[in-house]
Amino acid sequence: MFNLPPETFWLVVPWPFIWLTAGIVMYFVNKRKDDLEDEYYANLDEKEMK
Amino acid sequence: MGSDAIVFIIYLFILLLIGLYFSRKASKSVDSYLLGDRSLGPAVTALTMQSTSMSGFMFLGGPAEAFQRGWYAILYGIGDAGGSIVNLSVLGKRMRRMSELLKALSSIEYLEKRYESTAIRIVGAVISIVFLFAYVFAQFIASGKALEALTGLSYETALIIGVSVIIVYTVTGGYLAVVWTDFFQSIVMLVGMVGILVMGLIHVGGLSGLNASLAKIDPSYLSIWGKDLEFYGQWGVIIGAILIYSIGYMGLPHVVVRHMSMKSTKTVKTATLWTAIYNQAMAFSPYLLGLIGIILLPNIADPEMVVSELAYTFFPGLFAAILLSAVMAAIMSTSDSILMQAGTILSRDVYQRFMNKTADQNRMILVSRISILLAGIIGIIVAIKQPPSVFALVVFAFGTLGNSFLVPYICSVYWRNSNKVGILTAMIAGSISHILWTTFDWQASTGIHPFLGGLLVSILGMIIGNRFGTPPSEEVFKIFEEAKGPRLLPSNIEKNISCEISPEAKSISTFVSKQLSIEGQLK
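Structure tokens for the assembled complex are given below, as produced in the milestone run.
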């Protein structure tokens, strides 16, 4: 484990992976929100057109 | 003049050109000068946010901390690596929408309009001006130190040259020049930092070799509790060190303004991805370089110069100078944003709000430019007279700003009934507690990091203060709801509603058609 004491290793090494995963998850969460928003406004426009 | 100095002059000249390129566009309107017409895309938003957050501290203060305290310093890097992801995810969309609905151009004006309180604007402006100045002084000191070491010029001359360039392109090009130079400089920072780190790791035999060598000198360098187990068992210090840069960015006026200048709320998703990747490459490198310095440069006089000394150890002069432009990039990309924010607050929140309410666009741009110029000149004078340590000054100013504004910005978009008394109490309690915690070294007696202490006091102030004020007006409530975005029901609920409504709809339709047929028969 890179010659680190276990305490230091487990407190430090997982973080880059945690943050990277968080970034990717947030990308998809926000993408879903954006898609739903687009759908909502498209429906709103259709209703107004009618 | 050495070839290193020529490299830096070329680098500074490129920045000036970017500033001049945007000068015409910046003079178009106040919105354009102060907020770039809210037109920034995801890559620029992500990298300007990150390079603004990562200051001269990254190349000077951070490595020096690791050099002195070992692996404990990497805790700051852990927070830094996720700071912008948290910032964009928590505040991004809502703050972008609300700032536009409130027609706010500065982050302090935003708070005033959200809580309909002049007192918030006054207190907010005073706190941000004082501590943004302290923050920018640290950057100026870093700039002087870096240029002095790299070009051989005296500290004062180096300081004046470095800061003058920052002032010129910020004054002429406004916000757009600041964000585009930040974008360019963030790439320079990444190339420089990673280049030096790769060579450093090769020299010490990789991460395992580095740790083995550190253990031979002093095993406590490898401990997360600090050298000589200085913070052993003090979880308040450990958590505070991680939190200061992971959530502290949400309290910096010159960083949160990036949410307000995004092209649209859709910018957030890709910006989060950009920053997640960029940060993992950048945030840990300075601390690792500080650790490498313990092995390769044990007798260095000034630990803040570890990165530049390592660059000259690994690379020939000219190439080292190119990589070390990254040091200047980190310093300049933060200084310009702070100066820009200080200019915005002085012109928009002080001059236009309290001195000349009818000021036209040209006058406002002129006042902004003069404010930036004055802030820069005062900064140079202070930095020449009192050069303290970059690390101490940055952590102090950063912590105080974070403790003052973090709770107010989060409450502004998530707590509908938060009111002006709560916000004022949170701002004042947060800033005072951080100042006292640092000044009287309460960390030693309580085992709690000043940032964590200030944050807890600020949250408490918000909860208690909020009991005494009156809620904002209906108009603000409406804006608050609108800033949440369209409220969409999950598809399964939508389906159930249709199922429940459908029998009734069927009955109504049968009834109506029967009625119509009866009416038809009667006719």
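The mean pLDDT of chain A is 87. DSSP finds two helices and no strands in chain A. Further analysis is deferred to the final report.
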